Amino acid sequence: MSVGVFAAVLLAAFLHAAWNAVVKGGGDKFMSMTGMAVGHAIPGTAAILLLPSPAPESWPWIAIGVALHFGYQWFLLNAYRLGDLSQVYPLARGSAPLIVAVVSVTALGVVLTGTEVAAILLIAAGIISIGLARSGRANPGAVSAALITGVFIAAYSLTDGIGARLSGSPIAYFGWTATLGGVAFAAFAQWRRPGMVRALPRTAPGAFFFGGSASFAAYAIVVWAFTQAPIALVTALRETSIVFALLIGAFVLRERVDLARIASIFVTITGTVLMRFARS
Asked: Which residues form the EamA domain (predicted)?
């Protein structure tokens, strides 16, 4: 992975952590998720209008991607409802790179070096152990929701990676995916809570304005990176956003970080450094 792609994906991971930190304090998780999803449509529409249209062969992948992103959002909300997300969310984010790596090697014919495989394993282990470091036990329902969420993350990562490569215009590709997905989630939210979508700029401004734009920028960078490096490596590196989230929590929000989490961060960073030098 080149220095430019590596740095860009780390920037995307930081942006992902930053918008999560902004909306973290919101008590209404459904409203925050809706604000972020609908907020995607603003930069998404700009990308559609300003950039070349994706190639026709990528449109089926856009449709699949919209459905998978919606499924991810739905099961993530279930994880919020069923358990402590600080326990189950790392399980979702940490399992996704492992799934992507297995599918890439076994089904897509991608060849990964031993060093790259080791880097993916270390990053995934570090992320998952962040959740395991929490005191108490997650209930089976919450763990199931987390693992299903991880499957959706892996599925949309693979779909968007393939679609972006076919599109010839990866940012516009994600512009369409994000905008159509925002419209779909807005319709769902309007059905669940009539009148909520119209009030989002007032009731959830952080999620709608900053969350939507930062989330769009973060994943748009990742979609572009999918066209520059193996999807499995980009997916694993993207999930280091959890480390950035912990650092923001410790140094900005003054949250406590114990020795177990410090060890988890060290393992994840070790995998990140290994990935950087795995392939020129």
From this structure: 143-275
- In the chain, the number of structural domains is 1
* Segments forming the whole domain that contains residue 266: 3-276
Q: What is the pLDDT of residues 254-278, one digit of tens each?
A: 777 778 888 998 999 999 999 988 8
CA angle at residue 147 from 142 to 148, to 5 degrees? 95
Residues 10-37: pLDDT tens digits? 999 999 888 777 665 567 888 988 999 9
- Please give the Cα distance from 220 to 223 (Å, whole number): 5
Distance of CA 96 to the CA centre of its chain: 10
Burial class (CB in 10 A: 0-12, 13-18, 19+), 50: exposed
0.90 surpassed by pTM: yes
Count of residues making up the chain: 280
User: In the 8-state DSSP scheme, what is residue 222?
Assistant: H
**Distance in angstroms (rounded) separating the CA atoms of residues 190 and 263:** 43
Whether 100 and 158 have beta carbons less than 8 Å apart is answered as: yes
